[in-house]
Input
Amino acid sequence: MATVHAFIFSRVENVYTICNPSSKSSRRTRKTVRLVGAKIPNVLPSFPVVDSICRSTSIRCIMGERLKQGRELELEDTLLCREEDRRKIFSEKMTAAKSLVRGRSEFWDLVDQISTSLHREHWEETSEITKLRSMKKDLKADVVLEVLKLQTNAKKALEFFHWAGKLEEYEHHSDSYLSIIVILSSSNMLDAAQAIIEQMNNNGLQIDSGIFAVLMKCYGDLGKTREALDVFDSMKTKGYVPGTNSYNTILVALVRAKELEMAESIYVEMLGYRVNMNTLTFTTMIHCLCLRNKLEEAKGMLENMLDQGSSPDVVTYTTLISSLCKRGKMSQAFDIFGKMQEQGCSPNVITYNFMIYGLCFVGKVEAAIVWLQKMPSKGCTPNIYSYTCVMDGLGKVGRTNEAKQLLSEAIGKGLAPTLVSYNALFHGYFREGRPDDALDLFDEMSRKGIRPNKVSYTTLIHGLVKWRRIPEALRLQDAIELKGYKLDFPTLKALLQGLCKEGSHKNACRLFRKMQEMGHLHDSEAYYMVINANLLAGEMEEALILFYELVRNNPPNLLVYNKVLQDFCINERLDDAIHLLKFMIENGGVANVTSYSILLKELCKEDRGDVARQFYATALKRGLFPYYNPDNHVCRRKFIESD
Output
């Protein structure tokens, strides 16, 4: 006797398949007939074909993945029965298959109707939903689950979930809860996901630890480590014992957020509970220790991992190698690289890139070039970052022309240069004092349609200011602003310094006011640069206005006070200097010996002894002994301009 299974038709694929699952050949024998819609075609395989297959095997129609719960109808048939009996059995089997197909068709039609309705506004009032409400028995858990899986709008999915849950004859299953939690978490609707978990808890449904892991991962991806820890603690409070996956999830979140001490604490807890550790656990903790600069402990953890029989993967080794290379510990990096190969773990392009970076970092550019050249023979094709690391190393040792040739070589091999590649060349040109070549490269980028980023512009402006190419720097600043970029404060400050050194006090004032509009109001050094530029240009009134503005916004340090005081004296603004020293005394007594000495020297030179004696007496009362005595016009010691 052989078991003959009824056909089950796939509505998704619109095919049915006759196969021989017991065939000894490597492939199953398949005969496929495509259906129109979900109906049984009028033309079926000839009976002799079916007869032939029925004698040797079972007949089964393979349905799509969604039809997991499709029932198989079994009938027994005698292989040696007469042809009429076989025809009768075949007819009964086809009738049963048609009935099943019709049921599955109705199932998917209902799913489609609900999903389509959810795309409309006020979907609860659509005719399909109204009809469904009146036919409550038609809404099954598997329908709700499929509708949820098809939703791309998390809010609509949540609305439907709550709507279905309010129907009298329907109750959510655990699969539906899990589906909506995943949807909400993926859309960063984590508060709503937590509310669903509470609802599950209130309804007495068992909450799988995987649900907590989903929430922790989403909170971790958003950088909300506090919330991720709350979920982790809630999991334990509710009586669930975290497993390897849960611990790994919270460890990854903490290390990513640089909450390194907390990560080590969780790891110790994991050890205490004897939770099994896998490669991800060890890799995460090696990364944590490297970030804390505990490289010896990180190496020890790798050894411990090997002793326990765990297999470090390429990420594990590369994590440790990258940290060693970034710190210039190349001998140790070579040891780990060798151990990696001994263990049968092949380094990837990222591993090689870090080794090349480390060699350039310690100035061994020639060795880095050798590593780059031997990568293909080791089964690893260099990428553009491999070339960029060497280019940056060449630029740092004054070999930018070779770096440019290397970029051409990379392009010739079909690699697309990144902005990092061009920025490395910019740095090299400015280190060598070649601003014109840097500007030519900038023009080349524009011709090729490569749009510079903020780092590119910042590098260019710093380099142009360094080599006193202020007009080009100003033009570049205007171009940057037209493209919608905003330069950071250090770059603007460097440009301001360049303008002040060039004596362009008007441009300096304009840039300074623009910096204030951008919110940079309280930098004493920037204030002093522009004050000093105005003093040198003889714009004393503007300098005085800026100084008192500085005092109102951010009281300057004593060095700035004394510099401005001295500049007033040099520029024969003695009355302003007197007023300034009084202001210093009245506002917290910030004046020191240098402050008094600067003014006393000028007062003595101008034969204003009465005023000088008053300030000298004030200084003595404050326990200060200025270098100049107005009674004998003698300097007790060499005048020191600053403390």
Observations:
- DSSP finds 31 helices and six strands in the chain.
